[in-house]
Specification:
This protein is mainly alpha-helical. It contains 14 helices and 4 strands. 31% of the residues are buried.
Length: 472
């Protein structure tokens, strides 16, 4: 099976990647058949989808220009255009910067773990995969239901609007509108007959693709953060057992830098230690089957060369390699977060700029709600969906900040003072590296967190209050 040959996050995010490929994203890699013919067909399909997205969006914009004379129609059409700007920008943002997305996906292709912490790592990896796939399922389900709700409300209420009377500028007349999901200009008659059927099918396909394009990119970003948070939790949980293990190393040991160089040298040159090196230690589970990680004790099962601390040389190397594993894994997490920010930061900035203008106009439209009708449901639907998009990545961005901040607390709260000199140096390194919490920024203009979401809500509340005072 092709999926079994994939590695790292590509395999973990396989359902999301497959859905993105089906909806026309220029995600041309990660297929079983990568021949020129099939790649050309996939590129042609993505090009067709992109053409449909651009043409229909331009038709929305033409309708906006056509109805620019009336303030209410202008505001409503502007909200619609801005709402779908997310879909266009994210779809083509991915197409232009897909190499960066590939690089981020490939950052975590190394699934190696330390034998002492393999069970804990496997548990958190499974938790991350389960959370990511549930998130994909929930987001896709809500997006599809939103599309059906959008289509259904089109056939509720009267489909008319007021326009200026061309014969009398001081009077208005009622003009009938076609029952379509969005107001759009077409070069054919979209009121009835074949023209209406064609327009309805085009908008139906376009609507679902547009909603999915906007949400799938955000979902991939959130999945990356979920995986990162689980890795940080894994590192926090093994901190205390690691200190308990290092307490057994009460003999004189070299400085950490020298130790790490020595471990690397032993790994590359097994003969230097008279055994098979660290890789052999990793593969030979029998010699260390009596390690008791939960109590921090090491049971020596072999009658061989035992040092003053009661550990064989292999066991000492295994404990010291565990410290190196923690440092290297944390560096990998930091590098992964940096790649996420470089890949998605500009998209977050564009998203927040567009959402701010959209929510401002929605605050103005909300002041005109007088009862439970189609207009009220439409405005509230736009408002909830737009805020939901912002909340989605703000929630997981805030979780990243919390989990990374607690790493230093976990390091300081463990019994590092009972550990070896090597362990104390290790704790100092951890505290220095974790003084600043990891976070994702929108091209360095803002930090993605719940504080950002709260600030957006405060701005919308103030604007709504101002618009209400002016209308009264």
């Amino acid at each position: 099976m092709y999926k079994a040959r994939l590695h790292g996050l590509v395999a973990d995010l396989w359902p999301l990647i497959r859905i993105m490929q089906m909806t026309g994203f220029f995600l041309l890699d990660y297929h079983e058949d990568m021949s020129f013919g099939w790649t050309s067909i996939r590129a042609g399909y993505s090009g067709t989808v992109s053409g449909l997205m651009v043409i229909q969006f331009l038709l929305l914009f033409l309708n906006l220009m056509h109805q620019a004379e009336d303030v209410n129609d202008l505001t409503a059409n502007t909200i619609t255009v801005l709402f779908f700007v997310h879909s266009i920008t994210k779809f083509f943002y991915f197409a232009i910067r897909r190499n960066k997305f590939y690089r981020t996906l490939a950052t975590w292709n190394n699934a190696n773990s330390h034998p002492l912490f393999a069970e804990n790592h496997a548990r958190h990896h499974a938790t991350a995969v389960g959370s990511m796939r549930r998130l994909v399922m929930y987001v896709v389900a809500v997006t599809v239901l939103s599309g059906f709700a959008w289509t259904g409300i089109t056939f509720v209420g009267d489909s008319v609007h007021e326009i200026a009377d061309p014969e009398n500028a001081n009077e208005t007349i009622i003009e009938e509108l076609p029952r379509l999901m969005v107001r759009s200009w077409y070069p054919w008659n979209a009121m009835s007959g074949g023209g209406y059927f064609v327009s309805f099918i085009i908008q139906l396909i376009w609507l679902f693709l547009a909603l999915l394009h906007a949400m799938l990119m955000d979902t991939m970003f959130c999945c990356w953060l979920i995986y990162t948070c689980e890795q940080l939790i894994h590192l926090k949980e093994i901190m205390k057992p690691l200190m308990e293990l290092s307490a057994s190393l009460d003999t004189v040991v070299p400085h950490s830098a020298e130790l790490f160089r020595a471990v690397s040298a032993n790994t590359n040159n097994p003969a230097a230690t008279g055994d098979d090196g660290i890789r052999a230690i990793y593969s030979n589970q029998h010699d260390f089957s009596n390690f008791r990680l939960n109590t921090g004790t090491l049971a020596n099962v072999n009658t061989g060369n035992v040092g003053p601390n009661g550990l064989t040389k292999k066991q000492e190397l295994l404990v010291r390699s565990a410290i190196k594993y923690w440092v290297e894994r944390h560096k990998h997490v930091v590098r992964f977060v940096s790649n996420i920010g470089d890949t998605y930061g500009a998209a977050l900035l564009l998203h927040m700029l567009t959402s701010t203008v959209t929510l401002t106009l929605l605050a103005y439209q909300a002041t005109k709600i007088e009862g439970v009708d189609v207009y009220a449901c439409t405005v509230i639907g736009y408002l909830v969906y737009t805020l939901g998009q912002v909340f989605l990545f703000c929630f997981y961005g805030n979780r990243l900040i919390e989990e990374s901040s607690s790493v230093m607390e976990a390091a300081y709260s463990c019994q590092w003072y009972d550990g070896s000199e090597e362990a104390k140096t290790f704790i100092q390194i951890v505290c220095q590296q974790c003084q600043k919490a990891m976070s994702i920024s929108g091209a360095k203009f803002f930090t993605v967190s719940l504080d950002l979401f709260a600030s957006v809500n405060q701005i919308i509340g103030k604007l709504y209050h101002v618009c209400t005072m002016q209308s009264t």
